[in-house]
Amino acid sequence: MLGRARRRAWGLSGRLIASYIVVTFAVVVLAEVLVLCFQLAPVEESDQQLSRLHDLTSQTATSYAHRLAQRYPDGVPAGTVLGVSGQPARPGAVANLAPDGTLLVPAVTGSIDSGQAITAVVAIAANGTVIASSAPSRYPPGLSAGAELPVQAATAIPSGEIYLKGGNVPTRYGTVLFWMVASPDSPGTSEPLSSAPGRVAYVYVQVPWSSPWFVNPVRAWSDERHLGNTGTLLWGNLALLIVLVPVGVLFGVLASWRLVRRVRRLERATLAVADGDYAVTLPVSGRDEVGRLEANFTAMSRQLDSALAAERQRAGTDASAAERARIAREVHDAISQHLFGLRMIAAGMRRADPGNQQAQAIERISEEAVRDMQALLIELRPPCLDDAGLAPALREICASYQRLGVSVDASLDDMIVPAPVEHALLRITQEACGNAVRHGNARQLAVSMIRQDGHVELAVHDSGTGFDPAAPHPGSGLTHIRDRVAELGGTVEIDSAPGRGAALTVRVPVP
After folding, report:
1. CB of 215 within 8 A of CB of 37?
2. Could you tell me the strand order of the sheet in which 174-182 lies?
3. Is-contact 16 256, C-beta < 8 A?
4. How far apart are CA 206 and CA 93, in angstroms?
5. β-strand pairing of 444-452 with 407-412
6. In sequence order, what E strands does 195-247 have?
7. Least confident segment among 164-173, 189-198, 208-217, 428-437
8. What's the confidence (pLDDT) of residue 46?
9. Beta partners for 410?
10. Is the pLDDT of residue 171 over 60?
């Protein structure tokens, strides 16, 4: 019982169920990783990065405002390019950090072909014109800042606000996060700002901004662990697995039950065939691969059964032929020799005493016995069909009877018929000729065979004593003839009467 349970556990059903569980587990894990990378972690990372960039941009704007006020107290000279020279513009990306922790803004003196936002710093006068910038080709000096800066930054200039303004807004160059701060030497909001040439009233700093859509899962898990959210994720995954594993088991059982049942039925059928039961058949339970296998298995078992039946029939026929040949040898070597000796003694007695009636009777009976024995030997040892074919084999039978002194008129058409038909017609001809000579004392035979209308017609006529077909007969020759013809689906006609010979006609269908 334990071994049977173990075989079932490691059988097809168990493996299918295990595969469903593994697939379910993999799907759950993959789904959680995707959620972590595409939804949860990017949102948290976006919030963290947004807050960090807000701090960096505000610090950078304040730092530039102090440095410009200290370095250029009388105003920024014309042609000044802000930022750090030698740094790439890196459109669409955030610049590196400077040693003081602020943004490292690149100074771009050439043209900027990209339509993406860049990290930039812009010094703005009190009247809203650009004094200097880190990208003169995009924010040229003398141009109104409101034409290039975000609306939120531009609206703060006319009001004279000195408080920090910031946000992440879309522009025609892409989404940016910006901060704008008033110069530290600007007066309060109640007093007008100086309009001296080159005097900085505001400093504007921007960085490109785009929320990440995917992050490294390892880094995302590390961030979640630092935030203390791993416990929630683990318990959520565990609860989901606890729910989905039984579902996977149930789905595996339901999905594999019918398949396993069909395979086991096929297994039992193969065991039956291995035990010698070739008559087993399987119902076709579907049009899939297993259904085709069932149909092919049934066809194979039927072919094996037919082949074995034919082999058994051939073996029986060969055994019967071998036994008949053995009996023929025994009859020829023993009984025929004794009959020949008896006939020679009777002939000698008749020649010594021509009037001895008993010697004459013995000689006559001996000659008839020898003739009957020779006819019996012909019947016991039929000609071979393998090489010659049906018509030549029947001609050989006729020639054998002619050698016994029987006149035979043979009209046999050459034809090719199935082997069972050949064998049956050969035996029927043997039986009919032997009965005519041995029992009917016939001295004339007429044997014919033709093929017409999908049938083979064999006829044997003799000039013997005849018999009553309706009367019972001690022998089984006619019974065997009728049985052979019935097996082939043919008909037998016997026309005979005492004193006028016999006519046997056999018709057998052939393809």
Report:
1. yes
2. 130-133, 120-124, 202-208, 174-182, 165-171
3. yes
4. 11
5. parallel
6. 202-208
7. 189-198
8. 56
9. 447
10. yes
Residue count of the chain, please give it: 511
* Dist CA 165 CA 150 (whole Å): 11
Instruction: Select the more confidently predicted residue: 479 or 113.
Output: 479
User: In the beta sheet, which residues pair with residue 250?
Assistant: none
Indicate whether 484 pLDDT > 70. Answer: yes
Element holding 300 (H helix, E strand):
helix 289-330
Does position 121 have pLDDT exceeding 90, yes or no? yes
pLDDT tens for residues 50-82?
Answer: 777 788 888 889 999 999 988 888 888 888 999
Q: What is the mean pLDDT of residues 183-212?
A: 67
Contact in structure between 304 and 328 (CB atoms under 8 Å): no
Kindly report the number of other CB atoms within 10 A of residue 407's CB atom: 12
CB 102 within 8 A of CB 66: no
Q: Residue 299: helix, strand or coil by DSSP?
A: helix
Paired tokens of 407:
């006149």
Please give the full DSSP string across 253-284, using - where no structure is assigned.
Answer: HHHHHHHHHHHHHHHHHHHHHHTT-TT-----
* 176 membership: H or E segment, kind and range: strand 174-182
3-state SS of 50-74? Answer: HHHHHHHHHHHHHHHHHHHHHHCCC
In angstroms, rounded to a whole number, what is the distance separating the alpha carbons of residues 105 and 135? 10
* Rounded Cα gap, residues 16 and 22, in angstroms: 10
Q: Report the pLDDT averaged over residues 3-15.
A: 55
Give 233's pLDDT tier (boundaries 50, 70, 90): low
Q: What is the pLDDT of residue 507?
A: 94
Tokens 């290039």 found at? 148
Architecture of the domain made up of 389-511: 2-Layer Sandwich (3.30)
How far apart CA 325 and CA 381 sit, in angstroms, is 6
Using pLDDT thresholds of 50, 70 and 90, give the confidence band for residue 5: very low
3-state secondary structure 73-127: CCCCCCCCECCECCCCCCCCCCCCECCCCCECCECCCCCCCCCCCCCEEEEECCC
pTM above 0.70, yes or no: no
Nearest in space to 233 (alpha carbons), one of 25, 27, 28:
28
The identity of residue 139, as a single letter, is: Y
Give the SS3 label for residue 206: strand
- The mean pLDDT of the chain is 75
> How far is it, in rounded angstroms, from Cα 224 to Cα 213?
17
- Pairing verdict, β 165-171 and 174-182: antiparallel
Report the distance separating Cα 170 and Cα 151, nearest Å: 10
Question: Could you tell me the two tokens for 204?
Answer: 């504007």
Domain ranges of the chain: 11-277, 278-304, 389-511
